[in-house]
Amino acid sequence: MGPGLFSDIGKKAKDLLTKDYISDQKLSISTYSDTGVALTSTAVKKGGLSTGDVGALYKYKNTLIDVKVDTGSNILTTLTLTDIVPSTKTIASLKFPDYSSGRLETQYFHHHATFTTAVALKQSPAVDLSITLGTPTFALGAEASYETATSKLTKYTAGISVTKPDSCAAIILGDKGDTIKASYIHHMDSLKTTAATGEITRRFSTNENTFTVGGSYAVDSLTIVKLKLNNHGNLGAVLQHEVIPKSLLTISSEFDTKALDKTPKFGVALALKP
């Protein structure tokens, strides 16, 4: 019931313009055991390189354990604990054998404020902080990253959002004040499968503006089409179809309308779930 995390500001418009726009081939198969363990196997082919991973997800009461093993024998373990202290969530991640990539994050939720802190598990770590104030309708917040090795702020960002049942507008000032981004999304139906959005980004150091419009349209209960186009001539399209219940086939393509001689990018993803 609170204002949400700082990362939620502008997220709805961003997801509509970026989510499912893929340029590789991906196959994901998920199964669920009687003990509550979810097993997922993923294979990805990008260019001439093939990768993949196998993951297991287990939830028990307020504890969530996620383990993934990739083709490079890297093991990523994420442990999420909810309400150890009331209104908090703690997320710990550790990657083997790269221990320096470990991270510990704590989130605190209140009716009118949300606070997060994250620390890398290594010597002289970076510390990320964010705070959001407001309500589910109106929220403003800021985030910053502090590098303990150099005693400097490496990032600071501020944002504001106004959310209504069928629309959301947001403004984010980022890149240490060098970039400002404004976005708006409007949902056309109660299920929020048909929507239109617009986003404009201004980079002050280069006087560069990028304006993107996009949308999604529910052809029927099983099929969704997405489109996006920016002022640089980049056009993207996504077709997503539910082939069987809970299993999605996604076909994506992006190309430059100002350079039609260039080879377009194509991506295909199939996610199978029981």
Descriptive account of the structure:
The structure is a single chain. The protein is mainly beta and 274 residues long. It has a single domain (6-272), classed as Porin. It is 3% helix and 64% strand. It contains one helix and 19 strands. The protein has a 19-stranded mixed barrel. Strand 10 and strand 11 form a beta hairpin. The radius of gyration is 21 Å and the shape is globular. The two termini are 32 Å apart. The mean pLDDT is 93. Belongs to the eukaryotic mitochondrial porin (TC 1.B.8.1) family. Keywords: Ion transport, Membrane, Porin, Transmembrane, Transmembrane beta strand, Transport. GO terms for molecular function: porin activity; voltage-gated monoatomic anion channel activity. This is Voltage-dependent anion-selective channel protein. One of its GO terms (cellular component) is mitochondrial outer membrane.
